[in-house]
Input
Amino acid sequence: QSVLTQPPSVSAAPGQKVTISCSGSSSNIGNNYVSWYQQFQGTAPKLLIYENNKRPSGIPDRFSGSESGTSATLGITGLQTGDEADYYCGTWDSSLSAWVFGGGTKLTVL
Amino acid sequence: QVQLVESGGGVVQPGWSLRLSCAASGFTFTSYAMHWVRQAPGKGLEWVAVISYDGSNKYYADSVKGRFTISRDNSKNTLYLQVNCLRPEDTAVYYCARDRGSIVGPTEYLQHWGQGTLVTVSS
Output
């Protein structure tokens, strides 16, 4: 059971928008930055969003992040088949003194 | 460019030990905290441990505390994970990742990742 809760899967058609939620608590999301990671099948994860809503260079602005209270959301607009991947949220948990990940969300672009 | 190359994985029996390594290049290794993250087959990411830039501070996941030890040799630009008393549930790809900063507790984000090394624990 992950400290951060994500939906196991989401799906949408090409060109559409999808959001992935990440729910936590005051000891993690409520007091620390959230980051998001994208992982294609058989490859290493890659940083997608950091400090709640910032994109590393090279990440298209179709990807966005937001945070409110003890929850965070990853948004992807203009969906492409190439976006099919697993997405993980992560943050520091001050009570556990540990980094924590969500369980991951599999995105399917129908 | 940042490169992280893990090694040391393999097939071992329950109860055995391994030392995983992560060779870093393309950045000033001594300026960054480093992490180990693992992923069991078909499962999600599980954070394992983090070490500060100078090795003075370390944090571990409860699931590995007392069995795994994270360390670093800044003279060799290398991160290590000593894994002891291995169990079948430790079977996973082990990734090293570079932190955004130098200190730990809290960590802001895992900025760069290696390609991973597979550890299989089976009798």
Q: What stands out?
A: The CA atoms of residues 68 and 83 of chain B lie 5 Å apart.
